[in-house]
């Protein structure tokens, strides 16, 4: 909660204590009837009921004390005991000026000190990044930035899909096409190989290799054998695999960089596979692994389950380690390398059962401490404007780079009629902002339809609207600087639009904390639109630079500076950069 609001809540609690009511905490919230007050306290009625008293009488007794507080200029009772609070001018002025000096007072929370590991991204090596890969990386990046903003330490990992049967399929397809490559000779021992493999080659190879294996069991069996040899460090296969990973990761890094997405670790399933034997030995020592139809499993069912909970398959009946075992090995690795409070996963919500099994197995086997918290942040799907999965014209899954190019083209066409220099660069920044904001706007688990025309519109709840508005604020401040007009202190809140904006600012810390607790950015996105819209209404109604009253001019510009800084800070949490102009 905002520090000013928290101090006021503590004073209200003291007042209630004076009246004989001992409470652990008091909460006030933004009023749902702004015409009656800025905030409201709704705790009188349950308090009166508990003490068999008249709530209106209790409310009036409390109001008599609250009216003496300098933080409030008006206090009233409504209905059966609601208390409406209107803040004093000095309260709002002090808060805004504190924010102007140090905006982070609205973000950091000294009560939340955690080290959080975030697993997001998860693209498969040698496979094209498509629109389905957007949400994991975008949501994960924004959550990481949100955690940092409130004061948590984070460690992020892309967790590449660089191991397993698909790699065997790709290597087999290369072997089929180029059987004479040194990688496939029995006497190969790691020397450099003259083989010009590109990312475009891999994007062409991957679907062909997987289609062939799925259609022919003999090919599939050979791919499995290659994968087995790869996992046991066959010199040629391993060297070729390293080349494939390097080429693919370079392309993934380039595209994620375009989207302002970064990771502390670029590890993959192969990194955790190195801990597999050690982890399996530990699990077997716990006597929790049993056999079922030839597979090694862990029973993770709990008494409170109200639906079927299948056991976690550790080793498949054919002797191959499972996807679940790979995730357990990753947890084993992370737990040994880092001192963590929580591990967050960002994947499609349809994977919830998988992660429930993995988390239970990790705790039941004591791979991790009972205090380590696992969080599954499942998300909904991104569809096209027709509500169906985003497809290319020929019906294939749309590459993420194609979507980015399409939105960039739309932004350049619609939003940049007067820009002649750096058009493509600016359009790219705007496009990324439009895509990321549209993706983070719905609650995380909600499916949504991505409409390019709608989400690049300058009017409405869009990233382009926010960027344009923020650039206009900066332009106003730049002109003020050029005219040597100060904006370092707000002195007047007599303007009702100014009051409304500052009262909205008071709610920011609550929204930040709730976004963190819900692991979703939708409330921040909504808040950004609300505060920007309030400012734009003020901007269109009142003079700022040409205001003749210098006291008002300084206050208006100081307000502008605070909202500008706040927009920049929140847009940065969302991973959105601001172009110089548009």
Q: Give the C-alpha Rg.
A: 29 Å
By DSSP, the count of extended strands is 13
Strand order across the biggest sheet?
1-2-4-3
Q: Write down the domain tally.
A: 4
Assign the CATH topology of the largest domain: Isoleucyl-tRNA Synthetase, Domain 1
Shape: globular
Regions with little confidence, pLDDT below 50 for 5+ residues = none
Report the CATH superfamily of the largest domain: Isoleucyl-tRNA Synthetase, Domain 1
- Percent in strands: 5-15%
Summarize the biggest pleated sheet.
Answer: 4 strands, antiparallel
What value does the average pLDDT take?
Answer: 94
Measured as a percent range, the helix fraction is 40-55%
Category from helices, strands and their pairing = alpha/beta
CATH classification, class level of the largest domain: Mainly Alpha
CATH architecture classification of the largest domain: Orthogonal Bundle
Number of helical segments with 4 or more residues: 21
Alpha-carbon distance between the two ends: 36 Å
